[in-house]
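Before we proceed, please read the two lines closing this message. Report back on whether the C-alpha cells fit the sequence:
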Amino acid sequence: MSDKKILSFTIGPVQGFISQARKTKDSFSGSKILSDVVNETMKNLDEEQIILPKKDIESKPNRFIALVDANFDEKDILEQFENKAKLKYRQIAEATYRYVFNNEKRPIGFDEQIMDFLNIHWVVSDYRGIDYKRVHNELDSLMGAIKNTQMYPQIKFGNVQVGDQRATAEFGERGRKCTICGERNGIFYGQKPKGFFNPLFHRVIHNHYMSKNEGLCAVCFTKRFYENEKTSSFPSTAELSLMNITSNDLYKELNQKYNSTFSVDLLYV
C-alpha cells in the first residue's frame, strides 16, 4: 500500500445544523441536505476506493474515508471534492428558492449566506502499509486539530441599486436575526415585519410551513423548504417528546371516553 494515500473528508457544521430546529421538518431536511452533499461528493470515487461509508447507504454520514493514489495532491482534492460539495449545496439552495418563488430574483444576502455556510475539512496521510486502526486514529487526531482552527468570513460590501440610485451596502450580519439559528440575518418572513423592510433584501412567504412570526435566513429557509414536494407531513416536536404519553392506554381511554383528542401542545405546556 506504499502507493496509496488515505483521505478523510468531512462536511459541517453538523450538530448545530441539525439540532437548530423549530420543526421536525427542519431536522429531517438538515440531515438529508448533508447526506445529499456527501453523496454527490463521493461520486468521484470508485466503490473499491471507499472505506466508509458504503455507497449504497441511502442516508450518508457527514464524512467519508477513502484510499486514493499516492500522486493525488491537494489541488485534486480542492477541485474534485471541496468545490463539488460547495456547488452541490448551492444548487440545493437555488433549487429550493425556485420551488418557492419560481424565477423571482433572489434577495441580496441570500447567496452570501449560502456560500459562507459549509465548513469543509480534509486530511490526507500516507498509508505506509501500517494497520488501519492506527491510521484511522491518526486521521481523527489530525482532523480534530484542524477543526480547532476556526476561519471566519469577513464583512462584505457591494453596490446596490435602490430605485434610480446606487448605494454601497454592507452585507454584514445586523438587524433581526434568524428565528431558528439566531446567527444570520432574517431574509424570509411569514408576514411583513414592522420597521425596515426592503424587497431587495427580504421576501414574504405565505405558506403553511412558515409561521407568521418567523424570520429565516437563507440556510434555514433551505432546510425548511428542501424537497417539500417529496415529503409528507411531519409530527411536531411536542408530539415526538410526548409519544410515551400519547401511546399510553390511559391517554387513549380518556380520548375515547370524552370523544375528543387532547392537544399535545397543551400537554407539553
Q: What stands out?
A: The longest strand covers residues 4-12. The chain has a mean pLDDT of 79. The CA atoms of residues 34 and 62 lie 6 Å apart. The chain has three domains: 4-147, 174-230, 237-268.
